Amino acid sequence: xxxxxxxxxxxxxxxxxxxxxxxxxxxxxxxxxxxxxxxxxxxxxxxxxxxxxxxxxxxxxxxxxxxxxxxxxxxxxxxxxxxxxxxxxxxxxxxxxxxxxxxxxxxxxxxxxxxxxxxxxxxxxxxxxxxxxxxxxxxxxxxxxxxxxxxxxxxxxxxxxxxxxxxxxxxxxxxxxxxxxxxxxxxxxxxxxxxxxxxxxxxxxxxxxxxxxxxxxxxxxxxxxxxxxxxxxxxxxxxxxxxxxxxxxxxxxxxxxxxxxxxxxxxxxxxxxxxxxxxxxxxxxxxxxxxxxxxxxxxxxxxxx
Length: 305
Prior knowledge:
By secondary structure, the protein is of the alpha+beta class. The protein is 39% helix and 22% strand. It has helices at residues 9-18, 21-28, 32-46, 62-84, 86-90, 102-109, 113-119, 172-177, 228-236, 246-255, 284-297, 301-304, and strands at 51-53, 58-60, 94-100, 123-129, 143-147, 155-159, 164-170, 194-195, 206-210, 213-217, 224-225, 242-245, 259-261, 268-269, 272-277.
């Protein structure tokens, strides 16, 4: 606890307890000179001398003794209150509000939350599903999830999950009607399931890498929505091609319900980031969630080798 928080009261009480500045300084990890200055400033504000000082001893004045009798218990209560906060550091509690896209919620967080909540029964999690770009500060969220390059510069972003790649997928039934695209130009001949961005009202332009350069394609198709999982379900129903991330469709691809195409053009990303405002005073509940998630979702080096 800093001396300025109690305007010299902590210095006064500690010096009175030890009857000296040297021992009090050792307890507070401050120099005797700093303590003497704090006490002197307090005496000047109060307009009364609190200690009698000699080269060999320090003792309370009559006014100092009376003052100690009144403020000593109050300072002790304040110190106890500060120490009690260690309970929250050791056992974080409270409501943790998270903002995330539907794909991240379903693919990354769904398997994590049961274990996290079981390990931290004093924490509650409220998850707001949003495929747009919500201002998490204005909306009162503790943290959000995005790709790293879409996080605002004034936010702190922490990698949260393994690397991932874009996936363009269609169902076997769809490819029974349409020849699978081999190049990006072939997308003009296909029904593409479009995604409308809620925050801008615009359709998302599919992003690829061609000849080492990023390119964007405005696609067309008979069906559009503003829900990333609905896009995948529409692809499963054979309505067209969907643009998503591999983690969202890996089980369907492995089971043969969806087929990936154009993989050579699909960009890769380091992964999803959890982001929050500022580095100072990170809530213990959020710190515990970040530590828990990054430990559980860290890629297995053996699996990558």
